[in-house]
Amino acid sequence: MFELPEDLVVLGMKRIEGHPVEGFVKGKGKKNPIIMLIGEAPGEKESVQGVPFIGRAGDELAKSLASIGLSRDDVYMTSAVRSRPYVWKEKKTRNGETTKRKYNRAPTTHEINAHAPLLDYELKNISPMVIVTLGNVGLQRLLGKDAKVSNLHGQVLNTRVRHLASLKENEYIWSDEKYIIIPTFHPAAVFYRPSNRDFLNEDWSKIGNYLNVFKL
Ligand code: URA
After folding, report:
1. Ligand 1, atom nearest to 138 Cα
2. Domain residue spans in the chain?
3. Is the CB of 40 under 6 A from ligand 1?
4. 183 Cβ closer than 6 Å to some ligand 1 atom
5. Cα of 96 to ligand 1 centre, how many Å?
6. pTM of this prediction?
7. Contact assessment for residue 182 and residue 203, using Cβ atoms and an 8 Å cutoff
8. pLDDT digits (tens, 9 = 90+) for 93-148
9. How many Å apart are CA 148 and CA 135, to the nearest integer?
10. How far is ligand 1, taken at its centre, from the CA of residue 188, in Å?
11. What stretches pass through the bilayer (predicted)?
12. Could you name the CATH architecture of 6-213?
């Protein structure tokens, strides 16, 4: 198992202090995996249990992995932000009362910057055969805001990625090393729009085809 060094965990928690986020989820998996998956941020279940992709989106992801003969053990799972971003909202109960509860929300740029050193470390040390970004947050963290999952999904990119220039500023520079990246949609995309399932299935079949080349 690959372990994020404790000082980076402490640094990540410190850098995100004061933002409406909770919990802390390290990446999970081994070094030199077949795939490194980069998601957005943990949801409620993940933040409580400290394990990535164990909620509804994780079940969808497991189906996609199974479709190309892989399981969670073959991949390294991580995300741009390690703490669950939440927002308080009112909710009507069945008896007409209103209560407040926390809902998931997309991470802000500040939160993504706060945890950038953690993903930078993983990118330098995990050495996967291929990186699969799940949704725009992971993709844009690596390639910048002009990269859009709607344009790039299913393509095999051989590219440098962005990493923080220093811990003091939020300036990104391009890595010397190139990485193979195949962007696809976040597994939760099928909950918002069921027709996304066709795109997801096609992308995962392309990821499978790309990996099959290495089995020859
Ligand atoms: N979405 C993510 O990006 N990561 C998780 O762990 C769960 C949902």
Report:
1. 3
2. 6-213
3. yes
4. no
5. 32
6. 0.96
7. yes
8. 888 899 999 999 999 999 999 999 999 999 999 999 999 999 999 999 999 999 99
9. 9
10. 9
11. none
12. 3-Layer(aba) Sandwich (3.40)
